[in-house]
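Weekly sync, protein design subgroup
Attendees: M.S., D.O., the rotation student, P.L. (late)

Item 1: inverse folding check
M.S. brought a backbone from last month's batch and wanted to see whether the design step gives back something sensible before we order anything. D.O. pointed out we never logged the input encoding, so this time it goes straight into the notes. Structure tokens as presented (424 positions):
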């Protein structure tokens, strides 16, 4: 089978997944078409058969939340930070400089535990920025479709927080970083043992499968439809599922199946775990371009309103909570490194995409299939880091306060401190 092929990094990745699982078992035994998304219908929901849907319908509570599609409102103006945004031409130059600098990087390997992802051209590299006014600046392969994978978790979470509220999601799933790989069974076990939320948080697989299970709907088909339409609305166009990726992932997702049933055993997933897993796998198989992703991120940057269609997809409060989750866990166990170096919320997917958001200013998406050991695109991380730095986008950009002369003095052990009364 193709998924047994062992590239240097991919092989490590696969082996690492297995060993985490084994360790967990030991521990366990010890203890843009502005209007199209509004009218577009998902013609079929293959994979969610009638019988499953009927079974789910019977098992679901009868309370149904209001319709998911947002109503059109004027977009809030994006807040201006203290540092002015560079012009579109300057951003274009920054994007091109980053692409030129990093396109020759050969580190990393395509994900190989999902066979369809191993075949994607490793050379593809695209970077797109969507600005506050909806303008797109892009370079490279920004129209190449790829599987959104884990970045979909952001939009399913947006749906759930919008439907149930931030407090309920915190209570039902948890919001703390696991510090473990995205598909860690060990994290589920440790949380359960420590009387924390077994699902961890909505951006790891356990939490994301739980997120899907909790989206209010009368049937599995409706649940999928609501998640998919939310993704479409964020993107401002009707997205489609890459059926090859979906089939490939369905045929090989035994580890995620283990997680789903483990969560059922801890009564976190109360419905049919295989249905939640199927919808989760389907959302991961949605095909996007770097341009789509940047538009989806710009909607979050803009407080939940798509800057091009002007549709309010989720509330500013929901968008803020989703961005907070991206900041604390968007790149899994290497999120700390990311935040330390780059300082903006981001989310990666094993398809090679990374989406980063500078709230109130812009979103940037980069796509390049080869991944590091944690499953994050190597070139996409570097490109985004460089552009966020060039635009002074870090949310932790500390600056002297108030313009006082004392504020601009370099800190030094040899410089005598001014009396506190003279401090700004
Ligand atoms: N569908 C993938 C999985 O569940 C998503 C993982 C990812 O992108 N990090 O393994």
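Designed sequence read out in the meeting:
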């Amino acid at each position: 089978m193709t998924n047994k092929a062992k590239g240097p990094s991919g092989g490590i990745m696969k082996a690492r997944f297995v060993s985490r699982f084994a360790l967990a078992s030991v521990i366990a035994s010890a203890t843009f078409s502005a209007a199209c998304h509004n009218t577009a219908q998902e013609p079929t929901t293959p994979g969610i058969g009638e019988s499953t849907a009927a079974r789910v319908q019977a098992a679901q509570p009868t309370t149904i939340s209001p319709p998911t599609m947002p109503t059109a409102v004027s977009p809030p103006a994006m807040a201006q930070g203290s540092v002015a945004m560079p012009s579109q031409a300057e951003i274009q130059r920054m994007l091109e400089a980053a692409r030129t600098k990093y396109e020759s990087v050969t580190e990393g390997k395509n994900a190989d535990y999902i066979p369809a992802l191993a075949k994607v051209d490793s050379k593809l590299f695209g970077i797109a920025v969507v600005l506050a006014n909806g303008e797109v600046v892009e370079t490279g392969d920004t129209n190449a479709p790829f599987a959104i994978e884990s970045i979909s978790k952001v939009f399913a979470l947006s749906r759930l927080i919008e439907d149930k509220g931030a407090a309920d999601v915190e209570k039902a799933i948890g919001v703390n970083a696991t510090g473990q790989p995205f598909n860690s069974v060990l994290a589920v076990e440790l949380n359960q043992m420590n009387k924390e939320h077994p699902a961890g948080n909505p951006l790891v697989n356990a939490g994301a499968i739980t997120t899907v299970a909790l989206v209010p709907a009368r049937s599995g088909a409706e649940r999928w439809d609501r998640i998919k339409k939310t993704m479409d609305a964020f993107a401002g166009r009707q997205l489609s599922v890459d059926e090859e990726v979906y089939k490939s992932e369905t045929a090989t997702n035994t580890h995620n199946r283990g997680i789903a049933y483990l969560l059922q055993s801890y009564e976190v997933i109360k419905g049919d775990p295989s249905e939640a897993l199927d919808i989760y796998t389907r959302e991961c198989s949605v095909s996007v371009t770097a341009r789509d992703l940047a538009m989806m991120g710009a909607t979050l940057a803009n407080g939940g309103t798509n800057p091009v269609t002007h549709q309010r997809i989720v509330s500013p409060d929901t968008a803020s909570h989703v961005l907070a989750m991206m900041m604390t866990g968007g790149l899994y166990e290497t999120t700390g490194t990311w935040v330390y170096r780059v300082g903006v919320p981001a989310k990666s997917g094993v398809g090679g995409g990374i989406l980063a958001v500078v709230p109130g200013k812009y979103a940037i998406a980069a796509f390049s299939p080869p991944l590091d050991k944690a499953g994050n695109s190597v070139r996409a991380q570097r490109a985004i880091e460089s552009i966020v730095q060039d635009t002074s986008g870090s949310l932790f950009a500390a600056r002297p306060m108030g313009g006082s002369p004392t504020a601009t003095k370099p800190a030094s052990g040899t410089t005598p401190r001014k009396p506190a009364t003279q401090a700004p």
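Discussion: The domain at 24-66+78-396 is CATH 3.40.710.10 (Beta-lactamase). The chain has one domain: 24-66+78-396.
Action: P.L. to compare against the previous round before Friday.
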